[in-house]
From TrEMBL:
Its main location: cytoplasm. Cob(II)alamin binds at residues 66, 138, 159, 162, 173, 220, 245-246. Coiled coil: none annotated. This is Epoxyqueuosine reductase. One of its GO terms (molecular function) is epoxyqueuosine reductase activity. It catalyses: epoxyqueuosine(34) in tRNA + AH2 = queuosine(34) in tRNA + A + H2O. The active site is at residue 138. Keywords: 4Fe-4S, Cobalamin, Cobalt, Cytoplasm, Iron, Iron-sulfur, Metal-binding, Oxidoreductase, Queuosine biosynthesis, tRNA processing. It comes from Chryseobacterium camelliae. [4Fe-4S] cluster 1 binds at residues 192, 195, 198, 252. Pathway: tRNA modification; tRNA-queuosine biosynthesis. PROSITE patterns: 4FE4S_FER_1, 4FE4S_FER_2. PANTHER family: EPOXYQUEUOSINE REDUCTASE.
Length: 326
C-alpha cells in the first residue's frame, strides 16, 4: 500500500513539475534518476587525457561529482533537466561588425534562469511541501548535456550540442537536483544521420569526430576561456567572432525550427545593435563596464575583449596583405 502511494505521488509530482516548467517559460522538461552516469565516465576521462579542455583546468576537478549527483547534492533522488530558449527575435548585424554569440546578446543567463528556477521551486513547494534541492545553470560540476539527453529532451549532435527536433539547439540547459522520488523519462534517438554540416563548417576543425570537440581549437574557447594570448593557428580562421561562436549551430538543419524567445530580459542590448567595428576598436574600460554590467561578456573582461578585437584586426591585416591588388 505504501509503495502504491509513493508511485502515485511520483507520477503526480512528475506531471506537476513538467506543467509548472512550461508555465515558467521552459521549452522542455525531462526527469532522470540521480544515479552514476556510467556511460559518460570513460568518454570524459578520454577527453581530459587528450587535453581537449585546453587551459580549462577546472574541468579536471570533481571528476566523481560530475558523474554522480548524489555526491553533489546529498540525498538526491532525481535530476530535473530543463531547456530555455534564447534564439533572438532580431540578430545583430554582422555588416562591418565583429560578431558576438547570440546567447550573449542580453542579460547574463546564469542570473536570469536561476531566478526563474527559484521562483518555480517556491511554487512547487507550496503544492508539494518542503523538499531538498539545488538549482544549477552552468555553474557547477554537472554534466548537463548528459542529463538532458538521458531525460529525453534531445540528443547530442556531432557538434556536442544538445539538439531537439522541435526547436534545434539555441537554448540554455538548467537542472534541479532534488530528493523527490519522480518518474524518470527515456532518452530519445539520434537524428543527425549522415549530416556533417557542423563538422565541415568549423573553420578551426575543432569538431574532431562525432560528438567530440577539441575545446582548445574552438573559437568560443579562444575568445572566452583562454586567458593567454590567442595562438597563431587561429589567425584568419576567427571569422570576426570577438566573443563566442555560433557557426556550428547556424549551419545545423534542425535550427531552421528555432523560434524567437519570449523572455524580455534576453532581448538584444541596444548598444550592441548600434556598434560597428569602429566603435569596438575605440572601446574603453568605462564603456565596457557600462554595456556589459549584466552580460555574460563580462566573463572575458575588458582586457580579454580588447585582446580578441586586436587579434581579429591583426588577422584581417595579414589576410588583406596577402590578397592581390585589383
Amino acid at each position: 500500500m505504501q509503495g502504491e502511494i509513493m508511485n502515485s505521488n511520483a507520477e503526480k509530482y512528475s506531471q506537476l513539475i513538467k506543467s509548472k516548467a512550461r508555465s515558467f517559460g521552459f521549452q522542455n522538461c525531462g526527469i532522470s534518476a540521480a544515479d552514476f552516469l556510467e556511460e559518460d565516465a570513460r568518454p570524459l576521462e578520454t577527453w581530459l587525457k587528450n587535453n581537449f579542455h585546453g587551459e580549462m583546468k577546472y574541468m579536471e576537478n570533481h571528476f566523481d561529482k560530475r558523474l554522480d549527483p548524489r555526491l553533489l547534492v546529498e540525498g538526491s533522488k532525481s535530476v530535473i533537466s530543463l531547456s530555455y530558449n534564447y534564439f533572438p527575435e532580431e540578430k545583430i548585424s554582422a555588416l562591418e561588425n565583429f560578431k558576438i554569440s547570440k546567447y550573449a546578446y542580453a542579460e547574463d543567463y546564469h542570473e536570469v534562469i536561476k531566478e526563474i528556477l527559484r521562483e518555480m521551486v517556491a511554487d512547487l513547494q507550496k503544492e508539494i511541501g518542503e523538499f531538498g534541492f539545488r538549482v544549477f545553470v552552468d555553474s557547477a560540476p554537472v554534466m548537463e548535456r548528459s542529463w538532458a539527453r538521458k531525460s529525453g529532451i534531445g540528443w547530442v549532435g556531432k557538434n556536442a550540442n544538445l539538439i531537439t527536433r522541435q526547436s534545434g539547439s539555441f537554448y540554455f540547459l538548467a537542472e534541479i537536483i532534488c530528493d523527490l522520488e519522480l518518474v524518470p523519462d527515456h532518452a530519445t534517438t539520434d537524428h543527425c544521420g549522415t549530416c556533417r554540416k557542423c563538422m565541415d563548417a568549423c573553420p578551426t576543425q575543432a569538431i574532431v569526430s562525432d560528438k567530440i570537440v577539441d575545446g582548445s581549437k574552438c573559437i568560443s574557447y579562444a575568445t572566452i576561456e583562454l586567458r593567454d594570448e590567442i595562438p597563431v593557428h587561429f589567425k584568419n580562421k576567427m571569422d570576426d567572432w570577438m566573443f563566442g561562436c555560433d557557426i556550428c549551430q547556424d549551419v545545423c538543419p534542425w535550427n531552421r525550427f528555432a523560434a524567437p524567445n519570449l523572455q524580455t530580459r534576453f532581448r538584444p542590448n541596444e548598444a550592441l545593435k548600434n556598434f560597428r567595428k569602429g566603435e569596438w576598436k575605440e572601446l574603453t574600460q568605462e564603456l565596457f563596464s557600462e554595456i556589459f554590467r549584466k552580460s555574460p561578456v563580462k566573463r572575458t573582461k575588458f582586457a580579454g575583449l580588447k585582446r580578441n578585437i586586436e587579434f581579429l584586426e591583426q588577422s584581417s591585416g595579414t589576410k588583406s596583405d596577402s590578397l592581390p591588388l585589383k
